[in-house]
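Anyone have tokens for DNA replication complex GINS protein PSF1? Sequence:
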Amino acid sequence: MYAEQANKLVLDAKRIEKLPHLPPYAATTVRAVTKEVRDLDREVSNLLAPYNTGSTQSSDGTQIKSSAFNPADDPATACALLVNHLSMRRNKRCLLAYHRVRTDKLEEMCWSGVDVADLQAASRRSTLRAGNQNAATSSLSAEEEQYMHQYSDLLAAYKGQWTDIDLTGSPEPPRDIFIDVRVLQDVGEVQTEYGSITLTKNSQLNNVRQSDVERLIQQGYLQKLG
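Reply: yep, here.
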């Protein structure tokens, strides 16, 4: 059935919106949808081939095929053309929706301070826990990795205009200046305004200045207690 693979992308996009992480890119499904669009377009060209009367050139130099097809003369062909056109349109809209949701998630991660290397490492750990040694080491496609790098550079340039304001911080003022945290992942030595602290996995730190570790909490390295 037409657009069946595209519907899988829509369901996947809906699932991504509710997940805290970004699942692997559905490359196989995306290729299947784009192949279906090309096949439908080829079928439309074959259906209209007997009615083509030549081609004309538009003002911008594009060749436009002229057709003498009259839907009233051949309702069956007209119906097939309509179904193919609507199927191609639906496939394209599903592709756009899927990539838009993933792009929004990537931009959200950039604002949260997530780096591409951290995302790849998290995806690799998740793959190993699932026992799949042959799966892709990154949940992003090559184009998504490039987009995330470029968006991060733009965001860094934008934030650089206001060095005294953390635009990626929480918009809500902190209730406590000092908090207790538990270390979920090894971080190592971190420089703060009042000196350096060492963050090792499963350790707990008390009375840490929240502004010094807020970004690490957002990135999932630390857990706020209490």
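The CA atoms of residues 125 and 131 lie 10 Å apart.
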